[in-house]
Each structure stands twice: as structure tokens, then as C-alpha cells.
Amino acid sequence: MITLAHYMLLSAVLFAIGLFGVLSKKNAITVLVSTEIMLNAVNLNLIAINKYIGVDGFYGQLMAIFVIAVAAAEVGVGLGIIISMYRNKETISLDEFNFLKW
Amino acid sequence: MHFPLLTATLLAPVIGALVIAFIPKEEHKAIKSVAAFAMFVALFLSVFAFFSYDLAKGGFQFVEKYNWVPDLGVQFYLGVDGLSLPMLLLTNLLGFAAIFASWNVNNRPKEFFVLFLLLIAGVMGTFIAQDLFIFLLFYEVVVIPIYIMVVIWGSSKRVTKEYAGMKLTIYLLIGSAFLLFGLISIFVKSSDLLGHPTMNIEALGKVAFPKDFQITIFPFLLFGFGSLLSMWPFHSWSPDGYAGAPTAVSMIHAGVLKKIGGYGLIRIALYLLPEGAKYWAPVIAILATVNVAYAAFIALAQKDLKYVVGYSSVSHMGYVLLGIASLNIIGINGAVANMFAHGVMAALFFSMIGFVYEKTHTRYIPDLGGLAHQTPKLAIGLVMAGMASLGLPGLISFVPEFTVFVGIWKNEAMIPKFLAVIAIAGVIITALYVLRALAYSLFGPRREEYDHLKDIKGAELVPLVVLGFVLIAGGVLPFLIMDMVNSGVAPILAKLGATTAIGGKF
Amino acid sequence: MVEFAMHNAWLIPLLPAIAFAAIALLLWPWPKASSTFSILMILTSFVLALAVVYGVYTQPELIEKSMVYTTRWFSMPGLRIDVGIMLDPTSAMMLWVVTLVALLVQIYSLGYMEGDPGFSSFYAYLSLFAASMLGLVLSSNLLQMFVFWELVGLCSYLLIGFWFYKDSAREAAKKAFITTRVGDFGLLIGLLSLQLIFGTLNIPELAEKAVNFQNYVSAETLTLVLVVLFLGPIGKSGQFPLHVWLPDAMEGPTPVSALIHAATMVVAGVYLVGRILFLFKEVPAAMHVVAIIGGFTAFFAATIALTQTEMKRILAYSTVSQLGYMMLALGAASLTASMFHLMTHAYFKALMFLGAGSVLHALHGKAHIHEMGGLYKKMPWTTWTFVIGALAIAGIPPLAGFWSKDEILLVVKEAAHEAPGIYTPLFWLALITAFLTAFYMFRQVFTAFFGPEKPENHPHEAPWNMRLPLIILAFFSIVGGWVGLPWLEKGFGYWVRMGEFHHAEPDYVLMGVSVLLALAGIYLAYLMYLKKAIDPDKVAEKFGVLYKLSYHKYYIDEIYLWFNQMVVDGMGKILYWVDLYIVDGIVNGIGAITRGSGAVLRYTTTGNLQTYALVIFMVIVIITLYFAFGDASFASLFLGGGK
Prior knowledge:
By secondary structure, chain A is mainly α. Chain A has 3 helices and no strands. Chain A has one domain: Helix Hairpins. Chain A starts with a helix and ends in a 13-residue tail after the last helix. Chain C is mainly α. Chain C: GO terms for molecular function: NADH dehydrogenase (ubiquinone) activity; NADH dehydrogenase activity. Chain C: Belongs to the CPA3 antiporters (TC 2.A.63) subunit A family.
């Protein structure tokens, strides 16, 4: 029997993987991909909770579709930024982009 | 449903700004013409409102009221009475004049005029909003364009324009922080007392706040509005700010923005917290007298024309504060009329100084001299503004000053006579610094280096003509303004319970 | 016509005002048109004024009860200010004087100001002045009077500084405005107090209430108020100690000096006190102040005039001195004597100023009497009219000045019966002043117009438009005083008075003494300056200190200058320092603290995105853990009251 706990565990693992990617990878694209993993972890949670908590309607699913749409937009913007970063510095290593300080 | 006059007035500059946003930025003439036209419409509408206001009926007229955030009792409530109508007229008058005073702005005119029109709309909104929330909203709208305009189009002399803009903005914000605290306390307290939330100033005025509460909260409003009105010791933004700001911003800032402070003190602080006002009036009187004398003396020591006028406006605000502190109808009428008068006069002064600076590239008095030879019309404008500044009868500022004096002279219970005498003696010092500034910049031997200067002409003449006309008309026919102001102040004073006829014992 | 003029007297000031507006807005590019229009307007005013004068002086009931019509200017609960017109013999007399002198001066200026680049604006200012002065004269309300009072001050400022390219003119204009401002400050306080005491500033109402003023105010307070109010007239009418601006005001074009600083504006102070003399009469102490200031000024200014060398300055100090006489008469409670002298003084002093202007015109601006001499040959008209003026001011019968001065001496002498401690010394001062006046006037006449000619000068007689006013004024300087002959049944004193009319018997002894004194003064001047029997330099040496004091005008200007520069400007500098380094210092200090803390904390921002993300995540974890396992009451703050 697969319980809510299983889903949540999976989701937590996915989230942790994504977080690790975001925090440790130097390649901007990898970071972007990692954020997608984190978002999907959240989606998974939303849908699972909707199913197991036993409410009428599809609020969780709805929310998840919202998140997917936002994620798509975010990727669009994020890739655009990365391209312009590349144009500027010929690299997409995040260590090179630390001018957001002082 | 009647024509939404106030909304139309408010929207005229906003629409103007929108239209300008679609004009290519090279089309300087078109941009300026649109701005001028938008302000003309606003001015026309407010003049119409001024003269079609029914004095016999009084109260709020041209009212527009819509619920906005019912949970907080916020209403989009516009309306004008005898207190806000002169201020509305003043705003549009100065806005119109200021457009022409900035006719020669050729550095990014598109952005300049868009911001300027938004600024005017914001200022206008504060005067016609009869809802605390909307009032504050418009008040904050004003801050943004001011900062940008000072920093981009300003001029650096004794202080850099960045410093000036920063100082101006931060003071405005500090003032609004004090205000916010006071107004929120009033809102919360009134919700408790009434049982339902409301932001309607009129409705709040009917709430009887406990005396202790009034006495505690009044100083917040006093210092909030006071710092806007350049009350001593929160005045130092004013001269620096004006000196750094471009001409149009100086005109609007000294002319009307400052007046929001006085307007708010009367409309909100005095009206909602009369007991607090009575308690703190002697403090206001003392600070105001310091304002008058202190700033007048400092103006004597100034060498930069804009600083002279900057300190002079601080000094004049002392009279407004004194009128408010008198807490009787004569003094407060005088204070409101004085705000109007000072607005016109300061705007004329700043616009003329703007032209002087544009032509000679200096405002430093010892570098100027004999300008009346080359630019007689400019000289006429400056002399008129100067004479109004020193309270010459026959120009607009004499009657208000006189009424303020009567008001403070009358209230000897709270304002000691010696304060009044010091304040009245301010007129001597004023004469001294104004005449000195005029004498050494306009008169004296002809200077060869200024022989190439051209006198103001064409569009540049508009500020002089418009403001000069108001200066004289208001001076010769003071009842035009005084009756209006009186009808607006009377209900507030009725609440203060001080409308006693004067006369009788000394 | 008379009826129309009486009921439309407001037209009299309005017409010159129209002339001002028309020139300022329209006519200024055409000097000829400007001057013509201006003269036309003042001429119409003059005719109307004549009609009014005729109307008033045929209706004796106006003496007791003036003809007043008013309208509201502005009002609010507890304060109502009316403006209006007040016609009575006093204001009608002033109308006559002002329109006459203004008209003559405008005609005179056609010649005097010919070719000046500011010709049009000169006429605009003159018109504005005429309008304001006439408005002042007709005012029925003290605040209205104050309005015009300040406006004539403005015109005076503009006209003194008319040749603004001269540093001296610029300074003099400024000085005039500011000095009178000091007085106006007192006047304003006085008016405020009167408004609050009596609840009105309308002169007729004040007059009614003044009779039983005890119902409103104590005598001490009223005295104080009136003395403070009197500062205004002191400033405007050049009384000691605010007389310093008047001699400097001679920097203006000479017609201006004649019109404003001799005949009309400077007497506004006298006129104002005369208008509210009923208040002063109620409190003797205030009267004494007026009398003492007036009497002292008369003497004091005459002593300065003795040693001055600039023609117009001598005349200016003489004006100050004569204004002192008028004040003295008011202080002796005589409106009649004061107004009578005001009128005759306007004739002969305007005459002498215009004469002086004619001389300056001929000599191209040479101002010192020692640079002149023997002018009578080339300029007979100017010389002889000037001599008439000098004889009139010296008090030689039957010229105008004699009758009015005699009247003043008489009323002071009468007042001395009642309060000998105050008025007896003043009477003697007034007599000495009469002697001094004759002396300094003829010192000027003998030095400038007679004696040897100076070869370097090439004087010429003035053109007709300058001569005509001289002749007319000379005529009035002779006959102008005859309206107040002491033998007349209903003379000047019957019409222009305050209170009961009593016919004073002519005092022949006093007349004799004053004529003798005047003759003595003239003779002494003749000996010293024409015959050179007594060497003036020797006299000066003998009275070394006194001479120096007089020559330097008792150093009053220097004292004021010192006060202004050291005290007032010093105060300004000190407060500016306070503002810059203390008030602003605190403000900037707070700014600096903010910036300093930012400078320290900025090192926490590395700019590395992933570091930021890590911090954010860590904090979220901590907060979550805290909410999960920590203090529930703390968490409840954020979650809403632990519901």
C-alpha cells in the first residue's frame, strides 16, 4: 500500500536533489534544471495531498498546472538571462557572475 | 449624474502624461505643447470649480464617492470645500506656469514632462481626497517624481543635486512615517469607538477621541506635517532642496507641496484632534516664531538667489504655522490664505530665478548685477515677487499676513505678545534681505558680460503674466480668496469652538 | 459736475492708476504718448479734485460729519475691513495739494526728464504715485490708508532708485524702503491693536468710539498703542530718529524729490496722525510724545542743514525740519495749524525743489552750492522764484509760510499754558528753528544764486515747461497763506479743524518776534555769505566740535550702518553657521551613521548567488524547525493568536 508518506518522501528526496543542484552546481543551466526538479517535487506533493486528504475537487492538480505554467515561463526568462550572460562573458559559470554586491 | 469635475481635473495631467509617452522623444515642441495643453485644461477646470463653488451652501461640493476597500472603510472620495479649492487652484496655476518656466528644458524633455505631470496629479490628489487612505496614497505618489527630477535635471552648487534630492526625499518620507503612525492610530482608535472602520475624514471628525489620546497623537501629526511645512528644526531640506531642484520642481515644491503640510495640519490634525491642538498650540507658536526670525536672519547671510528664496519660504511658513497656532478663525483664515499667497509668490520668484540662471549660468548674487539694463521684464518679475514676499499691500500676500497678525495678536492667552512682536518684526528683516538681493542682482552699473542676454519673451513670459496677474488681482480683491477660505475654515473652527467675535477688551 | 465729483471721488485716484496701467502695458514704447496720457489723466483728476474742493468748502456740515461711502474689502467672523472714500475739508485740502503738485511736477518733468531712456516708466511711476497718494488721502479706513501708505513707499523706492545704474541711487532706495519699514512695523502693530480694541479701523467709527475709550481700553494701554503706532509717521515723515532716509532720497530725479519727498508723500505721516488726532487727544501723554518728537526734529534737522553743501540735501533737511513743525502742531492738538503749514509748505518746498532741479539741469548735475554762484544773471526766473520760496519758508510776511508758521507758534504757545513743562521748551526750540531756517535758506540763496559768477559754469534758463510750474508755485507761495489770515472770520481754521472752532486773536507780539528772527537770520546769512563781513570758516573753526557733528549729521547714519552690519548681519551669519553645522550637522550625522553601518555590513554581500540561496534555505529550515518544535507562543504571533 502506497501511503501519502511515500509520496512525500519521494517528493522530499526530489526536492533535496534539486536543492543540492541549485546550491552546488556552477553551470547555470544545471541550476535551472535543478530548480525544475524542485518545482516538480512540489507538484508531486500538491497532487498527492489532494488525493489523500479527501476533498472534493481538484485544487491540488489545479495548483500544479499553475506551477507548470509558471515554470515554463520561468525557464523562458531564465534561459534568456543565461544567453545574455553568455554573450557578456562567454561563460555561464555562476562563479563569474558575482557583481551583485556592495 | 453630474459631470465628474474633480476626476476630470485630476486626469487631465495624467492623460497628458500618457499622450506624451507616445510622442517620439525628439519632438520637443509637441511634448511641451501637450503638457501645456493638459495643464491648461486642468487649470481651466479648477478655475471653473473655484468660481462655480456655491459659497452660500458651503461644505463639500463636486463630490464623488465610491467604495474602494470596504473592509478598511476606504472610499475613493473626492470633494472640495473652501479649504481645498484654493489649494487645487494654486496647484494648477503653478503647474501651468511651471510648464512654461521649463520651456527651455532640452535634456530629455519627454521624461521631464511626464514626471512633472504625474507630480501635479499627485499633489492635486492630496488636496481633493477626503479619505485618509487616498490622501496618503497621493502623498506618496508625489515623492517619486520629485526625487527623479531633482537628481536628473537639478543643479549642483553648494550641495550636489544628488544630496539635495536625497535630503528632500528622505525628509518627505520621514514626515510620512510620523504621519502614518499618527493616522493609523487614529484609524484604529476610531474603529474601536465607532464599531466599524472608516477612513472618511468627515466621518472621523465626528468621533470624539479621548483627550489623552489626542494629546499623545497630535505631536506625530504635527511633526509629520510640520517637517513637510519646513517647521524648525525640520527645515533644512528646504533651502538645499530648492537650490538643487530644477525650476519647475522648486516652483511646485515651494508653491504647493509644502502647503500639503499646512493643509494637513488644518484639515486633519486640527479637525480630528482639537484638544491636542489646544494643548500643543504654544509649542507650535514658539517653533513658528523661531521659523520666522531664524530663517529670515539666515536669508540675510545668503549669496545664492535660490537660497535666499529658500530660507525666505521657510520664514514665511512660520507665519502659516503662527496662524494655525492662533486657533481662532482669523488666524487660520490668514494661514490658509497665506499658503495660497506664498505659493503664487514663491513660484514667481523661482521661475524668474530659473530664467536668471538659464541666461547667466549663475545665481551667485555678487556675480550678478545691473540685470535690469539687459532684461527689464525679468527684473519686473523679480521685483514683483520680491515685493509680494515682503508683504507689500496691493499684492496678494499682505491681507493674509495681516489676518495672521490679527489672529495671533488676539490669542494672547496662548501666544505671548512678545512672540507676536518678534514675528511681526520679521517683516523688517524680510524687507532687508529681499531688497538686498534685488538691489545687488538687478540694479547697479551695467555689466558688459551680460550685454548679450536676451530678455524673457514668448512662452517665457507666461509665468510672469499669469502669476503676476494673480498676485495683483488677489491683492486688490482679497475677498475673492478670503471668503472662500473662510467658508472652508469655519466648520473646522466650529469644532474647535473658538469662533468668538473679537473686539471688546484688549 | 460738483455733485458728480463728490459722489465719484474714487475716480480721482483711479484715473492716474489707469494711466499707470496703460503705460505699463501698452504705451511704454512711445514716450510722448506716455507722458501725454499721464498728464491728461492727472489733469482730469485735478479738475475733479477742484470740483470736490468746491463742493466740500460750500458745505459746512462736512466739517463735523464727513461724507463717507464704503464697501466691504474682505471680512470674516470678527474682522471686517471696509474700503471707502472720506470727504471732509481736510481730505479735500489734501486733494487740492496733491493733484496740483502732481500735475505741475508732471509738466515740469517733460523738460527735466527729456531724453531719458526711462522716460515712459518715469511717467508710469509718477502716475502710480499720484494714484496711491490720492487713495491715501481719501481713505476712510486705517488699513486702507496703510495699503496706500505702503504703495507710496513703493513708488518712492522705485523713483529714488530710478537711475538704478548709480550705486548711490540703489543704496538710497533700499535705505528709504527699509527705514520706513521699521516705522511701518510699529504702525502695523498699532493698527492691529486698534482693530482689536475697538473692533474697527473705519475712521468715523473710531472717532465715535474714541470719546468714551475707557469702555474699551485703559488710558495707559491706549497711550502705548498710539506711541507704537506713531513709529509709522516717524518713519514716513522723516522724524528723528528715522529721518536718515530722506536726505539720501535726493538721489532720485529732482521732480521726484519735489513731489514725493517734499510736498506729498512725506506729509503722509502728518496726515495720518491728523486723521486720528481724536485718539491722541484723549491721552495727553501720547500727544506729548508727538510734540516732543516733532519739536526736536524741527530743531535738530535745522542744525544739520546749517552745514550741508549739497543744494538738495539742504532742502531735504529743511523738509525734515518743517515736517517737525507740523508734528509739533499736531502735538499741540491743532489740526488746523498742522494742515495749514502742510499746505503752504507743499507750495514753497515744491517750488524750491523744482528750482533746484532747474539749476541742476542747467549745470549738468553739479550739486554743491559752492560750485554755483551768480546764477541770477543767466537764470532770472529760477532765481527769483527760488527767492520767493526761501522768503516764504523763512517766514516773511505776507508770504504763505509766515502765516502758517505763525499759527504753529501760536498754538504751541497756547498749549504751553496748559502743560508748561513740555511745551515751553518746545516753543523756544521752535523760535530758534525759525531763525535757523531763515539763516540756512539764505546761506544757500546767497551762495548759489548771488555772489560772483563761476566762469566754468554755463548756465541757461529752463525751458517753458519747467518755468511754468515754477511760476505757478511761486504765485501760491505768495498768496497761498492768505486763506488762513488770522483776521478772517471763516478762514482755514474754520474749515480744517478737529473739535470746536474758536477764533484765535492774532498775537501781534509773536508775529513781530518771528519776523525779527527771520530777518536776523537773513541778515546774518547776508553778512557771512554775500558781503563776507564774517568769515564762515572762522565760525566753523570756533564751533569745531559742533560744526563737525552737524556736518556729519551727528553720525547717526554711521551708527545705523554699524548696527546693521555688525548686529543684524552678524546675527544672520551666526544663525547660518548654526544652521549649517548644528541643525544640518545633526541631519548629516544621522545620514553618516546610516552610511557607516552600511559600509560595515556590505561585506556580507558576496555577490555569489548560490551563497544567498543557501542562506535563504538555511533560514527557512531554522524557522520551520522552530515552528515545529519550538515555543508555541512565539509561533502563535505569526500564525494568529493560537487559534
